Amino acid sequence: MIEKVFRDPIHHDIKVEHPIILELINAKEFQRLRRIKQLGTTSLTFHTAEHSRFGHSLGVYEITRRICNYFKRNYDVLDYGEDGWDDSERLVTLCAALLHDLGHGPFSHTFEAIFKTNHEQITVDIITSSKTEINQILRQVSEDFPEKVASVIAKTYPNKQVVQLISSQIDADRMDYLLRDAYFTGTEYGTFDLTRILRVIRPHKSGIVFKVSGMHAVEDYIVSRYQMYMQIYFHPVSRGMEMVLDRLLQRAQDLYHDNKPYFNKTSPLLVPFLAHDFDLVDYLALDDGVLTTAFHLWSQSDDAILSDLSKRFLNRVPFKSATFSKETFILLPELQELVEKVGFDERYYTAINSSFDLPYDFYKPEKSQNKTQIELIYPDGELIELSSASELVRAIAGETKGDQRFYFPDEMLASSTSDNYTLFEDSINSFNDSLKNGEIIKKDV
């Protein structure tokens, strides 16, 4: 086929050189990713973060394609044996890279929590179901090719090099979303020297390693990832919108069984999920637009809570928040009670959200599960784990970073309270006495 090129702000040219890849991109299950935002509610904090999972998936494919080319030129299995790259693995690797996010739904993580879906398992299901266009395209390669691609995503594929290119602590997926999310949020936190990393990466019998001479480029990547999580992915306002969405979907779930005709009329594509009886066809019918349309209709509901939460989400009215510690956790029931006194049902207008991440994890013998370590390789072939070689990485490795927050309506803040809430002044003042500089504190006795 004649090479197909997709223009991209991150990678400039994304080159499609194999007809199977182009067919996969044109499949309806992949085109659906155009209608799902990569960062969900983050676009309500960073207004230009409107990019889709479609663009990200193409980016992961392109990084993987470049790595395969580099491995073929420099580390062919014929020259390096078990430490080399077998280019017969190229197509399964590229397909897995392209399709790795196929199972994401709208506002993925919030939706998953309410309706008990799993995007990784659904990705595997889409690839292996004989009813999907994706599966039919992959079967053109061989009858068992869909299962091979799915096993890469499930991390059971026997070639560790292939698996780690798609899923490890420094993989094509993470490298693309850090650069892409930094670009579209208008921030610099996620930038790192991708060109340098793609020059120092190499295959090894244990998986993927990096030349020790490229350690500083890997350090830069680790720090960028840490900053993106702290400043972008864990942003309290984005999480405040997630909590509104979470409570909105929960309210719909709670109302459904007593008012099925209403939801059949206003949100028929969501009914299988409200009823907890959905199949793959139902799931693939969902995108951001389906949920947004439902929220518009729900905003006119006779149920005051469903209507109000819908309006808060559509009009970007996030819940406010305050951090809490082990010592102040005991105060949360009292604060929830004050929210109730002001007239808000605490089940739908308060929430606890914890966001923690390991900037980099190293092997711990006491843990039953460990992430794949980043290994550096010396010229003589000796390996050294990244945090053992890097003081910078060692300083932030192995410790979870993040916070725990208590979320509540904006109306509970004295500075935001309108005349409508003057009757609740005592409760609101008591609530605010427990807050200082965005933290929950113990009141002075």
From TrEMBL:
SUPFAM superfamilies: HD-domain/PDEase-like. It holds the Pfam family HD. Signal peptide: none annotated. GO terms for biological process: dGTP catabolic process. Residues 53-178 form the HD domain. InterPro entries: dGTPase-like, HD/PDEase_dom, HD_assoc_2, HD_domain. GO terms for molecular function: dGTPase activity. PANTHER family: DEOXYNUCLEOSIDE TRIPHOSPHATE TRIPHOSPHOHYDROLASE (PTHR11373), DEOXYNUCLEOSIDE TRIPHOSPHATE TRIPHOSPHOHYDROLASE SAMHD1 (PTHR11373:SF4). This is HD domain-containing protein. It comes from Vagococcus bubulae.
